[in-house]
Amino acid sequence: MARVPVAGQQPRVVAFGGGHGLAAALAAWRRITGQLTAVVTVADDGGSSGRIRREMPVLPPGDLRMALAALAGDEEREQTLAALFQHRFGGSGVLAGHPVGNLLLTGLAEMHGGDTVRALDELCALIGAQGRVLPMADEPLDLVARVETVDRDDPARVRTIRGQVAIAASPGRVRDIRVAPADPVVHPAVLEAIAQADVVSLGPGSWYTSVLPHLLVPRLRAALAESQARVVVVLNLEPQPGETDGFSPEEHLNVLLAHMDGVALHSVIADAESVVDRRGLLNAVRSCGAELLLAPVAEPDGAPRHDPERLSAALASVVGAR
């Protein structure tokens, strides 16, 4: 049975993901609780993060930086620092395209002998973060996927693609995915946060490259399987090109369930307007013993983005934090 938050107390929440999807979830969760831990993917190999991890033995900082910015305090100074973290250098030199926060995090981790968690904690304090940011593993990860091409005449219908950027850019449908190394080291702080959590949330975000990777790490999956936390999944508003082309909400859910391996699922949140086959999704949710909440969680203007206020209200209702 899932742990129930103590009445009158803020729930302890661990949110898994990366990139814009995790940032959206954090923007919603921070309206509910200050006891918030973001556990962030470390498999990014593109852009600034890719350049940094190819040149230095560090975790790719981009997704970690975005989570930091999403949790920044509300004071003017804190918001200014968060904007600085997100600012990308212009021009055409060696710094062009690098966000300031990526360089700050990388430099601070190097100062602390490669201790990224210590660096993240210090940056959280600097920007008055409403929670904590932790990496999902203590070493950089690579994603390796088998992708079925769209060309039916291709003699090699299924190809093995390595790297987050390459997977996202490959035309076709991802059939399965794994992380390399297969059993990376996970920081004790991550496992402790999971053990103490009242709620664990997955999604929204790039399904194969930001959401599923957490379930592919044996130590994370084992900790989740042992946890008494309520597990909440927020489904995407639409399929993502290159990863989940043509996926219905229930297909997203079924792919996730195939990777849970002993991890219980308690609640699924989906945008009411984005679900075509409501009965099909409801049946998929009920088949795994979970409950479905259909609610307006997208931006009111119709943009395919989650609205923080609306998503926060939906999350609060499923975890009893209204």
What are the SSEs and their pairings?
Elements: E1 13-17, H1 19-29, E2 36-40, H2 47-55, H3 62-71, H4 76-86, H5 100-111, H6 116-126, E3 132-135, E4 142-148, E5 158-162, H7 164-169, E6 173-180, H8 188-196, E7 199-202, H9 207-211, H10 213-216, H11 218-226, E8 230-234, H12 249-258, E9 267-271, H13 278-287, E10 291-295, H14 308-319
Parallel strand pairs: 1-2, 1-7, 2-3, 7-8, 8-9, 9-10
Antiparallel strand pairs: 4-5, 4-6
What's the gist of this structure?
This protein has 322 residues and is an alpha/beta fold. The chain is 40% helix and 16% strand.
Task: Describe the fold and architecture.
The protein is of the alpha/beta class and about 325 residues long. It has three domains: about 10-40 and about 185-320, 3-Layer(aba) Sandwich (Rossmann fold), CATH 3.40.50; about 40-135, no CATH class; about 140-180, no CATH class. About 40% of the residues lie in helices and about 15% in strands. It contains 14 helices and ten strands. The protein has helices at about 20-30, 45-55, 60-70, 75-85, 100-110, 115-125, 165-170, 190-195, 205-210, 215, 220-225, 250-260, 280-285, 310-320; strands at about 15, 35-40, 130-135, 140-150, 160, 175-180, 200, 230-235, 265-270, 290-295. Strands 3-2-1-7-8-9-10 form a seven-stranded parallel sheet, sandwiched between helices. Helix 4 crosses helix 5, helix 5 (about 100-110) crosses helix 6 (about 115-125) and helix 8 packs parallel to helix 11 (about 220-225). The relative contact order is 0.14.
